[in-house]
Design brief:
Distance between the termini: 70 Å
Oligomer: single chain
Number of domains: 2
Helix content: 10-25%
Structural class: alpha+beta
Length: 431
Amino acid sequence: MMIDLITSALKSQEEIDDWKIIEKRVDGKELFFVKDALDMNRIKKTHKFFVTVYHDFKENGKMYRGSSEFTIHPRMDEIDVESLIKENIFSSKFVKNTPYPLVTPSEKRKESSAKGALSNSIDEVVSDMYAEKLEKAWINSSEIFMNHIQERIVNSKGVDVSNDLFSLYVEFVTTSRAEKEEVELYWSFQFSKFDDEIIKDKIANAMKVTEDRSHAVRIPNLRDIPVILTGESVKEFFKYHLYKVSARYIYEHLSNAKVGLNLQGSGVNGDRITMWIDPFVERSAYSLNYDEDGFPVKKVKIIDDSIVKNIWGDVRYAHYLGIEPTGHMTNFVVEPGKVGEDDLQKGEYLKILSFSDFGLDPMTGDFGGEIRLGWYSDGENLIPLTGGSISGNVSDVEEIILSKETQQEDNFFGPKSLKISGLKISGSKKL
């Protein structure tokens, strides 16, 4: 076996103090459509070994742990493997990290119950995507990627564990033609389980937003009104809180968070934030048993009513801070609020259904984006708007109200919408 050849070659090098191998197999199917006609059908099979070598050394009386990562392909012979290892031992001597341990063996977990969940469903995905028929909106093109990913993680401390993952990733462009112009919008979603109702709902929403966008007018100057975010922008907003309490951000002085800190302060009205990291979010393609170092991940509450409850991080950064590691994972969960969306949408507000790009800086908390489609309500009438932008800072938000309705966006599960006040809205004309 190739992994035995690599392991033997690593063990033969005296300058290697530790090592890690991630063996990854990907079996996939990819479909490409122009409108509803299949343009390309491709099968994908890859098999690679991602290797990290660690070299400990002393310089000027101080200990360092150097490391170097590289990729080995199954068709390489013993000479190629040994040559590549020696090159990376040399490279590792230029990396000066504070020493940290590798993961040690733990009780093995059962494989993910999602195994086989996508094996025969790609045709159903296609059927569901093109089931929605609207006169003025349609899917212009789409790409569907279905992958079965098998990971095995082995290290020099005796760890030998695996993850068995499935991923359905879809990209598509919707088009709508109005009297004056044709509108195109880009969309994507990702799941680990086939769910026809969710897929149909996402397609229907995308088509409706695209059709509404074709009738939208330029956004006016709006001041001092609350903004409702929904969909992916909600997930992006909460990434500030997620990274704020990560061990890596704290160690690298990108965050001043510590257990007991109130992240929202005392002056923010509305809902308080409660957040978890969770390796087993249903339908998330990022759910796993072990992180990339082989550490067994588990669900941990990191923020409770806006108070930092736990710092999360992998073995390396947890070691640097002197705390218990949680493992590194990407799934996170925000508990929903108690207000329904109908009540959120009362009075004057701007609800943004689609951004051209919504960005958030997890270090500063600055966020914003250009508006593709929003709905302005004066309390009685709804007007579709486009253009303009919003901007703000998470720390300056005056009020946060979370919807009781929930959503899943890739690796995020939480409220479907949030209503916030204190943002700057830039328009192009007076109302």
